[in-house]
Amino acid sequence: MFMFEYNVRHGSVIGIVGAGGIGYYINNYLQFQMYDKVFSLLIIIFLVVVIIDFISMGVRSFVNEKGDVRRPSWLTVMLPGKKAAQIHHGIVAEDED
What we know:
5 helices
């Protein structure tokens, strides 16, 4: 499932540089300045990737030992793990000087 998700995401990017697939059509439409078709293809790619990501999350939850897979929040992506956990749980740590 992970490789399928990966291939869908990267297939469009690789196609833009000349390998074919849906990226080929995006590249063609960009050359002919058909921006409405480019925009619709990008929306379709986005929706398909989001749907596959949700399906992949469900599949991973069955093979995970704990049985649940949670997506990281923006807070945990932007901050180091310990600091994000402190903020998430409402613990305000003072700087140690």
